[in-house]
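Lab notes, practical 5.
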Amino acid sequence: MNNLTLNILGFPAVNKDLKVEIRDPLTQNVVREVKPFLDGTVRVPNIEPGAYEVFVKHPNIATTVLRRPIRVLPTEETNISVLIDPAQFRNTPIEDIPEANLAPVHDLAKSVAETVTPLGAKVAGEAILARDWNTMASAIRDLANAVAELTRLVTPTGHDHRELITKFEEVTGNFQGLVNSVTAALTEIQRQIQTQRFRKEVEDLLDRAAVDPVSPKGKEFLDLVGNLEEKVTEPPAAFSRVTRNAAVQLQTKFEALLDEKRDDPEFAASEPAKKMSASLDLLKQQRATTYDAEVEHNRKVDRTVGTGRLSLGLRQ
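Output from the prediction step:
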Protein backbone atom coordinates (compact mmCIF):
# COMPACT_ATOMS: atom_id res chain seq x y z
CA MET A 1 0.00 0.00 0.00
CA ASN A 2 1.10 3.57 -0.63
CA ASN A 3 0.61 6.98 0.93
CA LEU A 4 -0.70 10.11 -0.80
CA THR A 5 0.01 13.68 0.31
CA LEU A 6 -1.95 16.55 -1.24
CA ASN A 7 -0.96 20.17 -0.76
CA ILE A 8 -3.89 22.53 -1.31
CA LEU A 9 -2.62 25.97 -2.29
CA GLY A 10 -4.29 29.23 -3.25
CA PHE A 11 -6.50 30.39 -0.37
CA PRO A 12 -5.46 29.19 3.13
CA ALA A 13 -8.38 31.01 4.83
CA VAL A 14 -10.83 28.24 3.77
CA ASN A 15 -8.64 25.19 4.43
CA LYS A 16 -10.40 24.32 7.71
CA ASP A 17 -13.80 24.05 5.97
CA LEU A 18 -12.72 22.13 2.87
CA LYS A 19 -13.58 18.48 2.24
CA VAL A 20 -11.49 16.33 -0.10
CA GLU A 21 -12.89 13.28 -1.90
CA ILE A 22 -10.71 10.76 -3.72
CA ARG A 23 -12.87 9.06 -6.34
CA ASP A 24 -12.59 6.23 -8.81
CA PRO A 25 -12.53 7.98 -12.24
CA LEU A 26 -14.66 5.29 -13.91
CA THR A 27 -17.41 4.66 -11.35
CA GLN A 28 -17.13 8.01 -9.52
CA ASN A 29 -17.38 6.08 -6.26
CA VAL A 30 -15.74 7.82 -3.29
CA VAL A 31 -12.63 5.86 -2.32
CA ARG A 32 -11.56 8.17 0.53
CA GLU A 33 -12.98 11.29 2.16
CA VAL A 34 -10.63 13.43 4.25
CA LYS A 35 -10.28 16.97 5.62
CA PRO A 36 -7.08 18.99 5.23
CA PHE A 37 -4.97 20.41 8.02
CA LEU A 38 -4.99 24.19 8.48
CA ASP A 39 -1.92 24.50 6.26
CA GLY A 40 -3.75 22.72 3.41
CA THR A 41 -1.97 19.40 3.76
CA VAL A 42 -4.07 16.28 3.12
CA ARG A 43 -2.78 12.86 4.13
CA VAL A 44 -4.29 9.74 2.57
CA PRO A 45 -2.52 6.65 3.92
CA ASN A 46 -2.73 3.12 2.58
CA ILE A 47 -4.19 3.82 -0.87
CA GLU A 48 -3.76 1.56 -3.88
CA PRO A 49 -1.60 2.90 -6.75
CA GLY A 50 -3.52 3.98 -9.83
CA ALA A 51 -5.59 6.76 -11.37
CA TYR A 52 -8.04 8.77 -9.26
CA GLU A 53 -9.96 12.03 -9.33
CA VAL A 54 -9.72 14.65 -6.59
CA PHE A 55 -12.85 16.61 -5.66
CA VAL A 56 -12.40 19.57 -3.31
CA LYS A 57 -15.65 20.92 -1.84
CA HIS A 58 -16.70 23.76 0.46
CA PRO A 59 -20.04 24.00 2.31
CA ASN A 60 -20.64 27.57 1.08
CA ILE A 61 -19.96 26.77 -2.59
CA ALA A 62 -22.73 25.01 -4.53
CA THR A 63 -20.37 23.48 -7.08
CA THR A 64 -17.07 21.63 -6.72
CA VAL A 65 -14.24 24.00 -5.83
CA LEU A 66 -11.63 21.89 -7.62
CA ARG A 67 -11.72 18.72 -9.68
CA ARG A 68 -8.67 17.19 -11.28
CA PRO A 69 -7.25 13.75 -12.14
CA ILE A 70 -4.27 12.43 -10.20
CA ARG A 71 -2.19 9.28 -10.19
CA VAL A 72 -0.86 7.54 -7.11
CA LEU A 73 2.54 6.17 -8.03
CA PRO A 74 3.70 2.66 -7.10
CA THR A 75 6.17 4.16 -4.64
CA GLU A 76 5.96 4.55 -0.90
CA GLU A 77 5.01 8.25 -1.03
CA THR A 78 3.22 10.34 -3.69
CA ASN A 79 3.20 14.13 -3.27
CA ILE A 80 0.84 16.29 -5.34
CA SER A 81 0.10 20.02 -5.13
CA VAL A 82 -3.24 21.44 -6.29
CA LEU A 83 -4.20 25.10 -6.65
CA ILE A 84 -7.69 26.45 -5.90
CA ASP A 85 -8.96 29.73 -7.31
CA PRO A 86 -9.44 32.31 -4.51
CA ALA A 87 -11.97 34.13 -6.69
CA GLN A 88 -14.52 31.39 -5.95
CA PHE A 89 -14.65 32.59 -2.33
CA ARG A 90 -14.68 36.30 -3.07
CA ASN A 91 -17.47 38.16 -1.28
CA THR A 92 -16.22 41.70 -0.78
CA PRO A 93 -18.58 43.83 1.32
CA ILE A 94 -19.90 46.99 -0.29
CA GLU A 95 -17.44 49.80 0.40
CA ASP A 96 -18.58 52.12 3.15
CA ILE A 97 -18.38 55.60 1.64
CA PRO A 98 -18.25 58.29 4.39
CA GLU A 99 -21.31 60.51 4.48
CA ALA A 100 -20.80 63.93 2.95
CA ASN A 101 -20.58 66.86 5.39
CA LEU A 102 -23.34 69.21 4.25
CA ALA A 103 -23.05 71.60 7.22
CA PRO A 104 -20.89 74.17 5.35
CA VAL A 105 -23.35 74.20 2.44
CA HIS A 106 -26.26 74.61 4.85
CA ASP A 107 -24.54 77.46 6.68
CA LEU A 108 -23.67 79.28 3.47
CA ALA A 109 -27.23 79.00 2.14
CA LYS A 110 -28.60 80.27 5.46
CA SER A 111 -26.15 83.21 5.37
CA VAL A 112 -27.30 84.11 1.85
CA ALA A 113 -30.89 84.16 3.02
CA GLU A 114 -30.03 86.46 5.92
CA THR A 115 -28.01 88.76 3.65
CA VAL A 116 -30.74 89.36 1.04
CA THR A 117 -33.64 89.61 3.49
CA PRO A 118 -33.21 93.41 4.03
CA LEU A 119 -33.22 93.93 0.27
CA GLY A 120 -36.76 92.63 0.09
CA ALA A 121 -38.18 95.69 1.86
CA LYS A 122 -37.87 98.11 -1.09
CA VAL A 123 -40.97 100.11 -2.16
CA ALA A 124 -42.01 101.46 -5.53
CA GLY A 125 -39.89 104.39 -6.66
CA GLU A 126 -37.10 103.79 -4.14
CA ALA A 127 -33.63 103.93 -5.62
CA ILE A 128 -31.51 100.79 -5.82
CA LEU A 129 -28.17 101.78 -4.42
CA ALA A 130 -24.90 100.34 -5.69
CA ARG A 131 -24.17 98.63 -2.37
CA ASP A 132 -27.59 96.91 -2.47
CA TRP A 133 -26.95 95.68 -6.02
CA ASN A 134 -23.51 94.45 -5.05
CA THR A 135 -24.92 92.69 -1.99
CA MET A 136 -27.51 90.89 -4.14
CA ALA A 137 -24.90 89.91 -6.75
CA SER A 138 -22.59 88.58 -4.04
CA ALA A 139 -25.45 86.57 -2.52
CA ILE A 140 -26.32 85.03 -5.91
CA ARG A 141 -22.68 84.06 -6.38
CA ASP A 142 -22.51 82.44 -2.93
CA LEU A 143 -25.76 80.57 -3.59
CA ALA A 144 -24.47 79.29 -6.94
CA ASN A 145 -21.24 78.06 -5.29
CA ALA A 146 -23.29 76.34 -2.57
CA VAL A 147 -25.42 74.51 -5.14
CA ALA A 148 -22.32 73.44 -7.08
CA GLU A 149 -20.73 72.11 -3.89
CA LEU A 150 -23.96 70.29 -3.02
CA THR A 151 -24.02 68.42 -6.37
CA ARG A 152 -20.40 67.37 -5.85
CA LEU A 153 -20.95 66.09 -2.33
CA VAL A 154 -24.28 64.32 -2.77
CA THR A 155 -24.02 62.93 -6.32
CA PRO A 156 -20.67 62.06 -7.97
CA THR A 157 -20.16 63.18 -11.53
CA GLY A 158 -22.41 61.13 -13.84
CA HIS A 159 -24.21 59.56 -10.86
CA ASP A 160 -21.53 56.84 -10.75
CA HIS A 161 -21.63 55.06 -7.38
CA ARG A 162 -18.28 53.31 -7.68
CA GLU A 163 -18.80 51.14 -4.57
CA LEU A 164 -22.00 49.68 -6.03
CA ILE A 165 -20.51 49.16 -9.48
CA THR A 166 -17.54 47.32 -7.96
CA LYS A 167 -19.89 45.01 -6.03
CA PHE A 168 -22.15 44.43 -9.06
CA GLU A 169 -19.14 43.45 -11.16
CA GLU A 170 -18.03 40.97 -8.49
CA VAL A 171 -21.52 39.47 -8.16
CA THR A 172 -21.81 39.23 -11.94
CA GLY A 173 -18.47 37.43 -12.17
CA ASN A 174 -19.42 35.01 -9.38
CA PHE A 175 -22.80 34.32 -10.97
CA GLN A 176 -21.27 33.72 -14.39
CA GLY A 177 -18.79 31.31 -12.83
CA LEU A 178 -21.66 29.45 -11.16
CA VAL A 179 -23.62 29.31 -14.42
CA ASN A 180 -20.59 27.91 -16.25
CA SER A 181 -20.06 25.26 -13.55
CA VAL A 182 -23.74 24.25 -13.53
CA THR A 183 -23.81 24.08 -17.35
CA ALA A 184 -20.73 21.86 -17.37
CA ALA A 185 -22.21 19.60 -14.66
CA LEU A 186 -25.54 19.39 -16.52
CA THR A 187 -23.74 18.48 -19.73
CA GLU A 188 -21.81 15.68 -18.03
CA ILE A 189 -25.02 14.31 -16.52
CA GLN A 190 -26.65 14.34 -19.96
CA ARG A 191 -23.64 12.53 -21.40
CA GLN A 192 -23.82 9.82 -18.74
CA ILE A 193 -27.55 9.31 -19.26
CA GLN A 194 -27.30 9.17 -23.03
CA THR A 195 -24.28 6.88 -23.11
CA GLN A 196 -26.17 4.47 -20.82
CA ARG A 197 -29.16 4.64 -23.15
CA PHE A 198 -26.87 3.99 -26.11
CA ARG A 199 -25.24 1.02 -24.33
CA LYS A 200 -28.73 -0.44 -23.79
CA GLU A 201 -29.49 -0.04 -27.50
CA VAL A 202 -26.23 -1.76 -28.49
CA GLU A 203 -26.97 -4.62 -26.09
CA ASP A 204 -30.50 -4.97 -27.53
CA LEU A 205 -29.06 -5.02 -31.05
CA LEU A 206 -26.55 -7.74 -30.15
CA ASP A 207 -29.28 -9.74 -28.44
CA ARG A 208 -31.50 -9.48 -31.55
CA ALA A 209 -28.58 -10.55 -33.72
CA ALA A 210 -27.80 -13.46 -31.35
CA VAL A 211 -24.29 -12.10 -30.73
CA ASP A 212 -22.78 -12.87 -27.31
CA PRO A 213 -21.75 -9.55 -25.65
CA VAL A 214 -18.57 -11.17 -24.28
CA SER A 215 -17.58 -12.60 -27.66
CA PRO A 216 -14.91 -10.76 -29.68
CA LYS A 217 -17.57 -9.30 -31.99
CA GLY A 218 -19.75 -8.20 -29.09
CA LYS A 219 -16.80 -6.65 -27.28
CA GLU A 220 -15.94 -4.62 -30.40
CA PHE A 221 -19.33 -2.90 -30.12
CA LEU A 222 -19.35 -2.48 -26.35
CA ASP A 223 -15.73 -1.32 -26.08
CA LEU A 224 -16.56 1.65 -28.30
CA VAL A 225 -19.45 2.52 -25.99
CA GLY A 226 -17.16 2.09 -23.00
CA ASN A 227 -14.73 4.57 -24.52
CA LEU A 228 -17.55 7.12 -24.71
CA GLU A 229 -18.40 6.49 -21.06
CA GLU A 230 -14.77 7.12 -20.06
CA LYS A 231 -14.71 10.48 -21.86
CA VAL A 232 -17.82 12.06 -20.30
CA THR A 233 -15.71 14.63 -18.41
CA GLU A 234 -13.81 15.82 -21.49
CA PRO A 235 -14.27 19.39 -22.82
CA PRO A 236 -17.06 19.74 -25.43
CA ALA A 237 -14.81 19.87 -28.50
CA ALA A 238 -12.85 16.77 -27.41
CA PHE A 239 -16.01 14.83 -26.49
CA SER A 240 -17.63 15.74 -29.82
CA ARG A 241 -14.61 14.41 -31.68
CA VAL A 242 -14.62 11.15 -29.68
CA THR A 243 -18.38 10.81 -30.25
CA ARG A 244 -18.12 11.22 -34.02
CA ASN A 245 -15.21 8.78 -34.25
CA ALA A 246 -17.12 6.19 -32.23
CA ALA A 247 -20.21 6.70 -34.39
CA VAL A 248 -18.24 6.15 -37.61
CA GLN A 249 -16.64 2.96 -36.28
CA LEU A 250 -19.94 1.65 -34.94
CA GLN A 251 -21.63 2.46 -38.26
CA THR A 252 -19.07 0.29 -40.05
CA LYS A 253 -19.61 -2.60 -37.63
CA PHE A 254 -23.39 -2.16 -37.78
CA GLU A 255 -23.38 -2.32 -41.59
CA ALA A 256 -21.21 -5.45 -41.46
CA LEU A 257 -23.71 -7.00 -39.04
CA LEU A 258 -26.59 -6.12 -41.38
CA ASP A 259 -24.71 -7.78 -44.21
CA GLU A 260 -24.19 -10.92 -42.12
CA LYS A 261 -27.92 -11.00 -41.33
CA ARG A 262 -29.08 -10.43 -44.90
CA ASP A 263 -30.72 -13.88 -44.83
CA ASP A 264 -32.90 -12.61 -41.97
CA PRO A 265 -35.15 -10.02 -43.66
CA GLU A 266 -36.76 -9.08 -40.36
CA PHE A 267 -33.48 -8.08 -38.71
CA ALA A 268 -32.97 -4.83 -40.64
CA ALA A 269 -36.59 -3.85 -39.94
CA SER A 270 -36.44 -4.79 -36.27
CA GLU A 271 -36.84 -2.18 -33.53
CA PRO A 272 -33.24 -2.55 -32.22
CA ALA A 273 -31.84 -1.99 -35.73
CA LYS A 274 -34.02 1.09 -36.28
CA LYS A 275 -32.99 2.56 -32.91
CA MET A 276 -29.34 1.93 -33.65
CA SER A 277 -29.55 3.63 -37.03
CA ALA A 278 -31.27 6.71 -35.56
CA SER A 279 -28.80 6.94 -32.65
CA LEU A 280 -25.76 6.66 -34.92
CA ASP A 281 -27.10 9.49 -37.09
CA LEU A 282 -27.43 11.68 -33.99
CA LEU A 283 -23.95 10.79 -32.75
CA LYS A 284 -22.40 11.74 -36.10
CA GLN A 285 -24.10 15.15 -35.87
CA GLN A 286 -22.34 16.00 -32.58
CA ARG A 287 -20.14 19.02 -33.36
CA ALA A 288 -20.59 21.17 -30.26
CA THR A 289 -17.54 23.14 -29.13
CA THR A 290 -19.16 24.79 -26.06
CA TYR A 291 -21.22 23.45 -23.17
CA ASP A 292 -24.19 25.61 -24.19
CA ALA A 293 -24.14 24.20 -27.72
CA GLU A 294 -23.85 20.64 -26.41
CA VAL A 295 -26.79 21.11 -24.04
CA GLU A 296 -28.88 22.27 -27.01
CA HIS A 297 -27.74 19.27 -29.08
CA ASN A 298 -28.62 16.91 -26.23
CA ARG A 299 -32.07 18.47 -26.03
CA LYS A 300 -32.44 17.68 -29.73
CA VAL A 301 -31.49 14.08 -28.96
CA ASP A 302 -34.12 14.00 -26.20
CA ARG A 303 -36.76 15.29 -28.59
CA THR A 304 -35.77 12.68 -31.17
CA VAL A 305 -35.46 9.56 -29.01
CA GLY A 306 -37.82 10.63 -26.21
CA THR A 307 -37.03 10.96 -22.53
CA GLY A 308 -38.85 7.73 -21.80
CA ARG A 309 -36.10 5.81 -23.54
CA LEU A 310 -33.51 7.59 -21.43
CA SER A 311 -35.31 6.47 -18.31
CA LEU A 312 -35.50 2.97 -19.67
CA GLY A 313 -31.74 2.94 -20.16
CA LEU A 314 -31.20 3.99 -16.55
CA ARG A 315 -33.58 1.41 -15.12
CA GLN A 316 -31.77 -1.34 -16.92
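Observations recorded by the TA: The longest helix spans residues 162-208. Residues 103-160 form one domain.
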